[in-house]
Amino acid sequence: MLELNPPRAIPDRPHYFTIDLENRPAHHFRVPSLSKSARLIRFVQASGVVDNATNPDFLAANLPEILAVQGAVIGQCWYNAAASFEAKPADFPSLGDYGEQIQEELHEAGYKLAELNTMWAALVDRLVSSFVDSQEIETQENFTEAPTDSTT
Hints:
This protein is mainly alpha-helical. The chain has five helices and four strands, in the order βββαααβαα. The chain has a two-stranded antiparallel sheet. The protein has a two-stranded antiparallel ribbon with strand order 2-3. The protein is globular. Residues 140-144 have low confidence and may be disordered.
């Protein structure tokens, strides 16, 4: 993990937000563009973790893949003021490989599983909510457009 000195400024926009972790300074994140968010949501769904979150056999059998998915989501949304990841998605052949490296960096920085789970849960919720909100806005905009009469 790279220390940012000076710290980067966090924009005051709705898609930037904070997740509070116990005994740590505020952690800032950013909901990515709709294209990246859709890719992340598809990646999470394909992992099966959402459908099997309460199945201990699934979780035990797929833990490395689940942690890679978790790392990819955290890495893609990370926008911390004081630190950045060394790993960049473009440097890896897949989101899973990228996620594994993010997990390594978080491990080296001393993050605990409970902290990762707190970030993960909040991020997945934000990703899904922002994607749904964007679709609702688009639907409302299309709904309010004046109908065109092709017969006149």
